[in-house]
Every structure is written in C-alpha cells, then in structure tokens.
Fold each of these.
Amino acid sequence: MTKSKKLNIGMVCYPSVGGSGIVATLLGTELARLGHKVHFISYEEPFALDTNNKNIFFHQVTFNGYELFKYPDYTLPLAVKMVEVAKKYKLDILHVHYAVPHATAALLAKDIAREEGIPFPNVVTTLHGTDITLLARDKTVMPVIKYSIESSCGVTAVSESLKKDTVRNLKTKKDIEVIHNFYTPKEISIKRDKIRKDLGLTDSYFVVIHLSNMRPVKRIPDLLEIISKVKSNKNIKLLILAGGDFDQYLPLVKKLKIEKNIIIKRNVRDIENYINAADIGLYTSGEESFGMGILETMSYGKPVLATNAGGIPEFMQSGKTGFLFKVGEVDSFAKKLLELSKNRELVNKLGANARERAVSGFSAEKIVAKYLAYYEKIISSKE
Ligand code: GMT
C-alpha cells in the first residue's frame, strides 16, 4: 500500500454516548478528512457523526424482531450487513470497536463471504475496556471474547494497562498493539462568561467539572463525598455533565446535603463550552482503560484530579497536569481540591501543562498516523 492510497474502511461501533463509540467516530472523521472513505455500520447513526461529509457513509443494521425469539439477536444481522457493505464498497479493512459482538460478527461475516466467494477484508479489533475488565469476567461470554480476539487479524488496545488486563484475564496469545486514544478540541462557540451566567455562577466560583456516563465504575458516590467534604468553601461548585442516569444518586445528594453545591446538566453535546467555563476536572473511577473525559478536560487547558486507575497514568502526570490518587482516597482528593481552589496561579499552570500534554502526545495527527500504519500492516498480512 502506498502512502497516497485512499482506503475503503468499514468502522463498526456502538452508537450511543459511550467512550468506544466516541473514539470510533473521532477516528472515522479524521480518516475521512484525510480522504479515506469510511463506512460506519451500527444499529443507529453514531452520536456526533457528520454524515454530510462526502467521505462518511452510514449503513444501518436492521432487526426483524420475530416474536418467535424471546431475545432479539444483533450479531446475525450485523454479520450480514458487514458482508453486504464489504461486497458493495470493496472494503480494504474492517475496524471493529469493542470485542462483543462486533469482532464475533466479523468472524461470522468472513466465513459467509468465503462461502459465497465474496472478497472480505482483514479485521482489526480495538479493545476499549469494559469488554475486557467487565465482560471477560463473565463466564457466559468469556470464551467468545477470547476466541474473537485470537481470531481477529489485528488487535489493538487503548492503553498498556488494558493490554495487560487482556492477557491476564483471558490468557490470550495474540499480539496486541497499544494505540492510545486521542482528542481533537473543538472551537469554543459560547463564551465562558455566558455559560457561567446561564449556570448562575460568577467568575469568583471555582467550578469543578465531571463528565461521564454515570455507570458504577465511575464511583459517583466518591465524587459526591469529596464535594461534601469541601462544602465549607461555598465558592466550590461541582458541575456534572451526565451522559447517563444521575437520578439514582439523588438520595445521596440529599443525605450529604450538597444540593446547593452541585449543578447537573444532562446529555450536553457541546461539552467544550462547559469544560472551558470550568476550572478543574474531577474523576474518581474505580477502573478506566483510558478515560476519554479526562483527556477532553485536559485538552481545554484544565488540570485534573483523578484516580490512578488503569490507563489514566499513561497520559496524566501527577504533579504536572493535575494530581492522581488511589481509588477511594476521598480525603486526599478533598484536601487537594481545597488547596487548589485557593491557588488560581497553580491551577492555570497545571492547566497549561495539561493542554500541552494532550496536544503533544494525544492529538489526532499523532494517533491516526499510528492507526494507518497498523492498517497497512494488517492489510498486507496473510490470513
Ligand atoms: O465506561 C465508559 O466510559 C464507556 C466505555 C465504552 O466501552 O464505551 O469506555 C471505555 O472505552 C473508552 C474509550 O476507549 C475509555 O476511554 C474508557 O476508559 C473505557 N471505560 C472503562 O474502562 C471503564
């Protein structure tokens, strides 16, 4: 493959506001910008996908929902759609994000294509985290995950930590290439002052931001406890951009008496405007293969207080771009938060370092080039 050859790439992901879907959408968008044709395959159009882009295509997987079946199956129609798209658009590579059922469906698709004499591309599977740290502990699916990884032509993981977890949890023998996630900051379209005004906050507030899908792994109770420990400082506000159900935590908010210390915004799309209006990020995850929310926060020049879980220390430098703590160390988090709320100069310095780290190490330019080099290797490898 020559450097200038433009590829036809199949991109399979979950469409919802989840880390893996966001990464697949970002990657596809950057590849399209470089002139490659990117064919997204999913049950819904991925959130934030720009289908007006002439190089981006969306192919929807449809279900028939026969009453005969108690549990609707996605793997089968997904495999059929993969064959259809591979045949019609002559895909050079099929990149699936998340092992199950995407990598599994790709194996089935490959077999069907072979039977039918249809050329089928080599498959790259990207592991994102919960497919390994959560699902691979479940004996009812673990053998399928392991088989799908071993049988993919290429496998990537979004951090060294996830690669280690995969080998440890599944005893896989497959070579795994680590390609970290990346983020492309967006233009700020609403000024900091305006966002703050709309939130009822003046410039004197020290705004702590958290964005996530609110799943148990994010340890939202720790986040709330930290805020309850610093509530004596009435200027500290926690702004939560909830991409999932926050209501489950309302009884705890009430119990901790922090109703006035937090602001909840649900399903925000223009996260850049809110991060820009904040002062610091706060992330308390128990496990995190990477932590896209943290990288997003850093990209807009905000330092972060986070746990040292999983892949986070691979891009967050404690003492330089913010501070890292052990999972559950809420007292240390609270102490540092109070300290930083009184030291804007240090916050600005850490924020500048955070932006620099995100831009220099985790930009689209750097990471997309790694994916393209990996595609090249996988396309030319014999299956
Ligand atoms: O937990 C999430 O945020 C969703 C999950 C997913 O699979 O969509 O995210 C995983 O993949 C992201 C993108 O690679 C990573 O940034 C997250 O760290 C990872 N989540 C976990 O490992 C818990």
Note: The chain is about 40% helix and 15% strand.
Amino acid sequence: MDRDAGAAERLILALDTPTVADARTLVGRLDGAVSFYKIGLELALAGGLDLAGELIAAGRRVFLDLKFLDIGNTVERAVAQAADLGVTCLTVHGHDTKTLQAAVRGRGASQTRLLAVTVLTSLDGADLAEQGIRDGLTPGDLVTHRAGLAQARGFDGVIASGQEAGRLRAVVGGDFLIVTPGIRLADAESDDQVRVVTPERAIADGADYLVVGRPITAAADPAAAAERFIAAIGAGLAHRGLTSRAAS
Ligand code: C5P
C-alpha cells in the first residue's frame, strides 16, 4: 500500500459474506476489476482465513479486519500469524501504547501494514461518556488523539470515516495511511451507514484507500459498479492533483 497508488489499487472490496462459496463467487465476478479484498469477522469464522491464503497465493491483496485487542503477548502473536499468512494490512484497536507496541513487535520485519481503529463510527459522545471518557471529549477529539498515538508508536495508518479524513490528514501529515469505509456513490442508498461520503469527496479530502461493500456486492452487475467506484476515485485523485495510473 502506498500513497502513490493508482485508482483501481485503492478500492478494497468488503467480502461480508456468510460463506466462502459466496465470497469465491464474488471474487470470480470481480476478477480484473478488483484486486484487494477485506475479510472480517463473519467470513473469517466461516473459513475465510483459508480463502485469504488462496487469494494471496493468487496475487491478490488481503486486508484482515479482525480488530485485535487483547493483552500484549496475545496481540503480538496474533499479528505475527497474520503477517506470516501474508496479509497486506490488518486492524488493531488503537486505544493504548501497550497494544500498539505489541502489534508493531508482532509485525516484525514483514511488509504487513498496521491500521489502527480509533473510535468505532457506531459510537457517539454518549457512548464514550458511558465508558468513562468524559471532560467534553468528542468522538472527533478522541479519533485525532488516538491517530496521533498510533502514528507515534509505528503504525502505518488508521481507519477513519470520510467525514474525519480531512481533519485527520491535517494532523497526521502526508505519509500516514487513511483507509475509509462508509462510501456511497452520490445517487445511492446509504444502507445502515449513517455518515456516508462519496468516493470523490473522501479521496479529495485525503483518504488513501476506500472500503466498499454492499454498493458493489449487492449490485446487479458488481464489476460495472466497481468500475464506477474506480472512476470516482480517479476523479478524487485529480482533485488532489494526483494522476490515476492503472492498477499494477
Ligand atoms: O457494505 P458497506 O459498504 O457499508 O461495508 C462497509 C464495510 O466497512 C463493512 O465491512 C464494515 O464492517 C466496515 N466498516 C464500517 N465502518 C467502520 C469500520 C468498518 O462500515 N467504522
């Protein structure tokens, strides 16, 4: 993953399917359009880790989204296992230095990129207060604080909503990856995502990679839908003055 990637390389398809067979069907339909897949908890618990190995062996990239959070020893060893599998990136809850440093140790010399989850977008100020996080701290403040912590401890980037991307980019500078879910084309339904942003807007504001699920997976023609997202990413890159080169 790099900040100079072309438009097609920046699209990560969320394989949120209940079975590996369903995921394989999608991968087959998207062959040639999509080369980067996110595997989360649902599919991982249904054989998705074997599928991850197959995709990697076939030259695809895999984002393992299991959002690790545990004692340091466990996080370190889990990250080392994922790095051995050859995943391109994975998520860790970025709450504290001990967890972040354990993940960095587990990654070792591998190329696996570490992405911090700062504050889940499903949580609002009242949820944070319930956790004891008070003093008027907003989710946005905590996102910024935790992103800075992750960057200082050697992480490669964060997961952030499109609405946070611009503010975060200003804080973390140019070299830190911002990976953004909750993306919808301008004319689309938002499903259960509440704070949706278009691909052009997210990329123009500083997101590097976009995670897209249902707008592609539930489309009548998923490959055509993926191409629309890639074109929109290209338009966002043009806003940033970056050219969009072909996927490699
Ligand atoms: O289908 P849709 O495009 O909404 O899928 C978005 C993907 O991004 C899902 O896999 C979801 O779990 C993930 N995600 C998210 N919001 C976050 C973090 C991850 O929607 N804050």
Note: The beta strands are 11-14, 36-40, 61-68, 89-93, 113-117, 157-159, 177-180, 209-212.
